Amino acid sequence: MATSIETLSEAELKVYPNPTAGILYMADSLKNTKFEVFNIAGERVKTGNIKDNSINLANLKTGIYLIVINNFKYRVIKK
């Protein structure tokens, strides 16, 4: 059965730069897609919707974070 809904696989979704000093960009159009950011202790430190294909991490401390977008998980290092 065919569907008109397209989904991105983990391999297709690109996030950059990693490590980042503040702004994390998505190579694909994910406008208004929900995201969650977790610290290394598993605490949710940020949530929101992606705007302009980017997530602003500038207010987070230096460290390793897990970004969840469309149920895909990405490890990101904040400088």
Topology:
Blueprint lengths: L14 E2 L6 E4 L7 E5 L5 E6 L4 E3 L6 E7 L2 E7 L1
Antiparallel strand pairs: 1-2, 2-5, 3-4, 3-6, 6-7
Characterization of this structure:
With 79 residues, the protein is mostly beta strands. The protein has strands spanning 15-16, 23-26, 34-38, 44-49, 54-56, 63-69, 72-78. It has one domain: Immunoglobulin-like (Sandwich), CATH 2.60.40.10. The chain contains no helices and seven strands. A hairpin with a 5-residue loop joins strand 3 and strand 4. The protein starts with 14 loop residues before the first strand and ends with a strand.
From the N-terminal CA to the C-terminal CA, the straight-line distance is: 46 Å
CATH homologous superfamily identity:
Immunoglobulins
Output the helix-strand order.
EEEEEEE
Query: Mind telling me the C-alpha Rg?
Result: 13 Å
Overall 3D geometry? globular
- Tally of contiguous helical segments: 0
Count of the separate structural domains: 1
- Beta-strand segment tally: 7
- In the predicted model, the low-confidence regions spanning at least 5 consecutive residues are 1-10
> Mean pLDDT score, rounded?
84
CATH topology: Immunoglobulin-like
Strand numbers in spatial order across the main sheet: 4-3-6-7
The proportion of strand residues reads: 35-45%
Question: Can you name the CATH architecture?
Answer: Sandwich
- Kindly name the structural category: mainly beta
Largest sheet: 4 strands, antiparallel
As a percent range, the share of helical residues equals under 10%
In the CATH scheme, the class would be Mainly Beta
Name the descriptors.
single chain; 79 residues; mainly beta; Immunoglobulin-like; 4-stranded antiparallel sheet; 3-stranded antiparallel sheet; disordered N terminus
